[in-house]
Write a structure and sequence with these properties.
The protein has 336 residues and is an alpha/beta fold. It contains 14 helices and twelve strands.
Amino acid sequence: MNILFLTQSGPDLPSVRFRVLPFVQRAKQAGHTADWKRIPKAFHKRIAFFLSIPRDTVIIIQKKLLTGFQLSILKRKSSALVFDFDDALWTSHPSSPAGPRRDKSEKRDAALLENICSKVDLVIAGNNYLRDRIKNFNPNIEIIPTPLDTDKYVPAEPRLGNKKLVVGWMGTSCNLFFLPEVFKELTDKTGQSNLYVVSDKPLPQNIADLAVFEKWSGEGEVQQLQKMDIGLMPLTDDEYTRGKCGFKILQYMACGAVPLASDVGFNREIIEHGVNGFLIKEPSEWKKYVDLLATDPDLRSKMAKEARKTVVEHFSLVPLADKMLARIEKIIPQTP
């Protein structure tokens, strides 16, 4: 197969780093010709780019909502046209202000999503919630969670001596929005905490003094994750968060941190409460379970091992990439 992924952003975006680049690499290892390219922003450059794609290419559109005209060009060029998404593209981030502008944007994006899903040969969705949103528009849907290279994302070597417990959060700066309430729950009356944040931008002023901040680094990401004993994923409960694929949790778990996550959406399918992490229903439970893990290192160690086992068995890169390649092969027309 000749496979081309089309993305809306560059290689630093998590969906490109983990849902595109590893699949390209695995496809090459499997003997296919594979590559990825970023879709130009300018309309005239975009159309020229689409027209330059060789015929009989398997084209996988990663999360970019294209118009019907643009889809028609890609359809003519492709041996199979695939749409892959891992976010609730029809709705807005909960930090986005409500109003007519947001309503108009969401209505437009919902229509584009429905149209693209109805036109492609296969839809790949990151979880059941996303699948259910578009299943009426295309019966050919495959659920493939965002995979993780569990040979790269590994726990740190055990360190001797007393190590201060580190409660961490890693994520893009738009999601710092979810942190203030949780951080205030985890900060004692003296203002002391053992919180650690890794992001592309510093903490907002209202919580800047509550955690140690470190700028995210692609090269140092694994080492940053390995510093954490507990990994946090607080979320609101809405359409946007139910569409998330819990990838932050998987990173924590693979690197030896016990996850504490809001009892929302796909988090429930990753975490078995009390076995490989804790699902948080009430604000007070953040501190409850941090304190439990802090005072019981044997429980923390046992749960960290179970967390790692979950990721290796269900979210490892190679089997999920091979599943995707096998599914694509089924939709390519067979020549006599």
